[in-house]
Every structure is written in structure tokens, then in C-alpha cells.
Amino acid sequence: MRSKMHFIAAGAGLTIGLLLPGFAMAQGGRGPQGPPPTGKAGAMEDLTGWWVAPVMEDYRWRMITPLKGDSASIPVNAAARKIIEAWDPAKDEAAKLECKSYGASAVMRIPGRLHITWQDDKTLKIETDAGTQTRLFHFGAKAPASGEASWQGYSVAEWEGESFDPSQLGFGLGLQQRAPRSKTLEVTTTNLRSGYLRKNGIPYSDKTVLREYYDRFTEPSGAEWFTVTTVVTDPEYLAVPFVTTTDFRREPDGSKFHPSACTAR
Prior knowledge:
Blueprint: H1 4-26, E1 49-52, H2 59-62, H3 78-85, H4 89-94, E2 113-120, E3 123-128, E4 134-139, E5 154-160, E6 184-190, E7 195-198, E8 202-204, E9 209-218, E10 224-233, E11 242-251
Parallel strand pairs: 4-5
Antiparallel strand pairs: 1-2, 1-11, 2-3, 3-4, 5-6, 6-9, 7-8, 9-10, 10-11
């Protein structure tokens, strides 16, 4: 005689077998699908438009050029300290290096405005009015193994959002979906030219890896914002990763967007 457990297990298997086709039909009835869409087609949040960065923290480091030697809150090491103490903006100007503090590792902290558009279906473009910089986020791509370093480097992007976890199948009530994750744009930037984390000469090297996480949200008032969490990892000049969060508020148009040149002071 077969045990009750045998019939319970068989019944559970039958329940799952009946539920899974229903789930497939709910997804379009086509069975297994290819990889999820990426780039513009897979966008989980709309970051396009005009944005401004209200300075709500770190005023003394963001709104004015910090004093020479001021590296407060940045985990610099001894090698970085030597460069910080030797900082001379006149030398940067003479060498045409005024944009050293406008590289990808620092530009999102500079007070100013952004214009975000899709350059094409696989490339999100961010233009800054401060320093007149252009960042390109490449979806469905890999960073090149080599290439000329630049202030903005090479950025690989992907959407990270809600997803179905098949390991959380349930009995009786059918499939259970795991808790939603925040809909986030994740960006990893490499191939950076060495620059400054702040205008007063706090360095990051060409070995830096920059990771960013973009989250958009809407206030009850209707105001739209996004927050970018920035993680700068540099084995040459930082003792530990340097983490910041910066907020941007949507503007109705580009009437206040005024591109300006990089400055070393």
C-alpha cells in the first residue's frame, strides 16, 4: 500500500504541473523566451529629460573649491596625500588639464544641470552643463580590454529590477513571486584617465573602477527626482571605496541649462 506521503507528493507535483502552463500562458503562451530586452526597450525607469542638482549636503566641498589639503571624508592613503599637498591649479592650467575634476568619478557631484537622452536604442547619453562633459552608457556591451583612457571612460550599463524567482514555487496558492527589487540602473565605468575627486587636487588613478546606481522616485507633490549612489574604488590612492549619494530634480525644460568650460580653480 502506498503511503499518504506518496499521494501528497504526487498531488503537489500535479498542482505545479497544472500551474506552470497557466503561468506560461500569462506570459504570452510562448514558453521559454530569450534574454530580456535591454537598453531603451528594457528601460525600467525614465531618466530622460532635464535635471538639476540641488546642493543639500557637502556645501563646503561642492559649491566652492576646498582649501588646499582638505580631503575630509575621502579615505585617501599616503600616496594620495603627497599629490594633494603638491596641488597647484596654475600647473594644471598650463598643461591644459582644467577638466581633471570633471571626470566620471567626480562630475555627478558638481553643482549643475544634466540633459539625459537616448543617443540610440543601446546608448543612454548624459550631458552636463558644468564642464560641458558627455557620458555614454552602453547597454548589452562589454568594456574594451584596452583603449585610450578618457575623462569619462567607458561605461557599461544594465537595468536591475523586478524578476521572477522560480525557486519560490508555492503549493495550494500556486506561484509566489519574490519581493520586488528597486528598479535601478547599474553602471560600471573603467578606462578612466586619472583625475581629481575634488577640485583641490584629491586624486584618483587610471586604475579606478566606478560603479553607480540610479534610482528614480516621485514625491507626493509630483516632483520627480533621481538619486545616484557612486562607489569609487581606486587601489592606488584610496584606502577603501569612496561612496557618495547625489540627488537630481527634474526640470520642465532646458531653459536653465548653460554649458560652461572646465575650470581648475
